[in-house]
Amino acid sequence: MREIIFHLDDSKNFRGGERQVIYLAGALSKRGIRNYIVARKNSPLEEKAQLKIIPNFSLPYFFEWDIISAILLCRKVRRICGKENIPVLHAHTGHTPAVAVLASFFLKCPVIVHRRVDFHLNRNPLTRLKYSGASKIIALSNAIKSILTDYGIDESKIIVIPSAFELNNAASAKSMREELNRKFLIPPDAFLAGTLAALQPHKDPFNLIKAAEICLKQDRNIFFLWAGEGPLKKECEHEAERLGIADSFKFIGQIEENISFLKALDIFILPSKEEGLGSSIIEAMACGLPVAATKAGGITELVKDGINGLLAQKENPVQLAEAVMKIRKDSELRKKFSASSLELSKDFSIDKMAEKTLKVYEETLKNFKPD
Known about the structure:
Layout: E1 2-9, H1 16-30, E2 35-40, H2 44-51, E3 56-59, H3 67-81, E4 85-91, H4 96-107, E5 111-115, H5 125-132, E6 136-139, H6 142-151, E7 158-160, H7 173-184, E8 191-196, H8 205-218, E9 222-227, H9 233-242, E10 249-253, H10 258-263, E11 267-270, H11 279-286, E12 291-294, E13 309-312, H12 317-329, H13 331-344, H14 350-367
Parallel strand pairs: 1-2, 1-4, 2-3, 4-5, 5-6, 6-7, 8-9, 8-11, 9-10, 11-12, 12-13
Helix pairs in contact: 1-14, 3-4, 8-12
């Protein structure tokens, strides 16, 4: 009998977590492991899976404890697995553990829950049921693991596996830089400080906007670029205009070539107040970028203060601006941080992530005892 993995992801967007699902499913396929991405119907993840020729099917995911999606999942899994194979339900988003746990009651199979954010869990019976119903929980960082153990989850149930990166065959950094300069009227000799993140409250874009205002009072040849969409976009644009920095702080929307964008930058910044790990930092490190970030969640497990970047307290734009300006003014420091970022990024390969996750599946199946 062989295991077949089903990756549940109900996201309506394609962000860092969905990219990790694609990486994992592709790497498992190369190892001969049958696995399916179970996405929301007509979602960007479903489209990406089809483009990558990764086996997939969709569910409606009407709401968190969606019994209809659970029943549909059971039917599909039984048809795929038959009697010869064992399903493993791997829930990758905040709501999909509920569907996985419901389906597991009928399928009598193990559930793996992936926890990617450092939000504190609700202390209610349904949340407890989601996590008590999981055989194993994969946390992106030790910071997330601490939150889970504080919640009362047995430490032996939690495995820490960080995100991974892929340096794809993206367009060159030079061509992306030229395109950015042309589109946003940026001087060729400007210092580009950028981030790659959703415009969500926990990413705290206002922290970076306020820090940028401080930086620009000292140096008008810095340009800030925020790549990503989100519900705070209009508010952020208005705040940049109110502070008089809209010409130097550009919100460039969602980008496809994230690696090309990162390679075009001189520094990467992540201003979050909550962060499970920060997979965009891993990609920035792999591109050899020095990093200025906050001491939020798992960020400190990636950015070693004074080694490959500088850290500021959360929600402290003055400290964040100081970190950016120190890196901006010192070319030797930038070279040191760049070399360290490249070296540290080697620990976050897709192969390592896939091997560790596969080990979790194998150990879970070995010890799983259906009721």
